[in-house]
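Today's session is about reading a structure prediction critically. Students often jump straight to the picture, but the first step is always the sequence itself: look for stretches that repeat, for charged clusters, for runs of hydrophobic residues. Only then move on to the predicted structure, which in these notes is written as discrete structure tokens rather than atom positions. Here is the chain we will use throughout the hour.
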Amino acid sequence: MRIATVLFILSLLPLWGFGQQPVEQGAKVRIEWARQLEYHREEGREIQLLKGDVRIQHDSVFLFCEEAVVVNQTDVTARGNVVILQGDSLAVFADSVFYGGRSKKSDLWGNVVLKHNEEKLFTDSLHYDLRRKIAYYKHWALLTNDTTQLRSLKGEYFVDRDEAVFHDSVTVVDPDFELRAEELRFNTRSQTVYFEGPTLISLGEERDSRIYCEDGFYDIPNELAEFA
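Below is the predicted structure for this chain, in token form.
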């Protein structure tokens, strides 16, 4: 199919949705590019099949992938080298993604990496609320920040607050210390760890000096700490 034909069809797609359920204002996604396009209706749904260098926009969100299925101009299932860009500082990479235009929520699977400023969050699956800018994981994740690595089985990443909250089997590994806990907060901007429950910290080159606490903080760059 010639590129000119594809672009012409894409320009007509909004006119083909007659008879379907009304779409809320602002819920529609915009297809910016695809090398191949197929369109059909199935059980009252408008379905667009896109392949090849797919680019989709929704407000300030941009989605890139190898192929996608768009249902009723709002819901996107994307596969193959998926990239979501939001603003200037956040990018999310995955093998597969579901994105809802009405809710502005996404579910990502396979080799997921959330990159925000200098931080990278690695996991197998992630739920990201793009409206609230909060990411959730329920299985495991690794957050890297400069020379510090933080892991846990569950957690949340708050983009606007530059903060991550870790739950369940939390470990922090840094050249100067190692930490184990069941819950803690980490400010990614100040690189400060806040203890929020039973915490064991191992210090020294041999990690032979230990501190137990249940409250306090550790400012990693300035090597300032308070234990309680």
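Discussion point for the tutorial: The chain has one helix and 17 strands.
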